[in-house]
Structure formats: structure tokens, C-alpha cells
Design goal:
Structural class: mainly alpha
Number of strands: 0
Number of helices: 4
Low-confidence stretches: none
Helix content: over 70%
Largest sheet: none
């Protein structure tokens, strides 16, 4: 693959995913989306882990490293992305499958 395309992908995804992941990991989210993104911090860390797949996988390939180094980078990147996907999926599953609570009824 052309190295110019790889570096363009690194630049574009860095401009999009890195600021969003850092903002969510620090607990900052738009008010309109906060209820949908709860819990915010684990989702931010998950997004950052998915982003780290990019440098681990693409940078050795773009620099023309040996095939073993590229394969090791792809393996590390895949593990980081899988961990990020787990961080994105588990909190939302925990939130959606919470037991229903009944509203407290005042006693007379």
C-alpha cells in the first residue's frame, strides 16, 4: 500500500479520534449526548485503546519495517482494539440490563 495513503489515514484518524477519546476519558461530553454516553470515562478509554491500534499497526508498515515487526505490531494493535471494544460494550450492557427499580411510594 502507498505510504502516503497510510500517513493520510494516520493524520485523519488522529484528528478525529484522539481529541474525542481524550475528552471522554477526562469526563467531558456534550450535555445532549451525556445520557446516551454514560458512563463517559470508560467509553473514552475504550476509544483511546481502539485508536492505539492505528499507530501499532500502521506505523511499522508505513516505515517499511521487517515483516516480523509488522506482524507483531498488527497483533498488539488487534489486542488493544479488542480491549477497547470490551470497554465500549461492557458498560453499556451493564447499564441496559440493570434491574428495574420501583419508585418509592410515600406512606400515609
Amino acid at each position: 500500500m502507498n505510504t502516503t495513503v497510510l500517513w493520510a489515514a494516520v493524520g485523519a484518524l488522529t484528528a478525529v479520534m484522539l481529541p474525542a477519546g481524550i475528552a471522554l476519558a477526562t469526563g467531558r461530553a456534550p450535555r445532549q449526548a451525556r445520557a446516551r454516553l454514560e458512563p463517559v470515562r470508560p467509553r473514552g478509554w475504550g476509544l483511546l485503546l481502539i485508536y492505539t491500534n492505528l499507530p501499532a499497526h500502521v506505523v511499522p508498515r508505513a516505515l517499511g519495517a521487517d515483516d516480523h515487526v509488522v506482524l507483531a505490531g498488527a497483533a498488539v494493535g488487534g489486542l488493544l482494539a479488542a480491549a477497547g471494544l470490551l470497554l465500549l460494550a461492557v458498560p453499556s450492557r451493564r447499564r441496559t440490563h440493570r434491574p428495574a427499580t420501583t419508585a418509592a411510594v410515600p406512606r400515609r
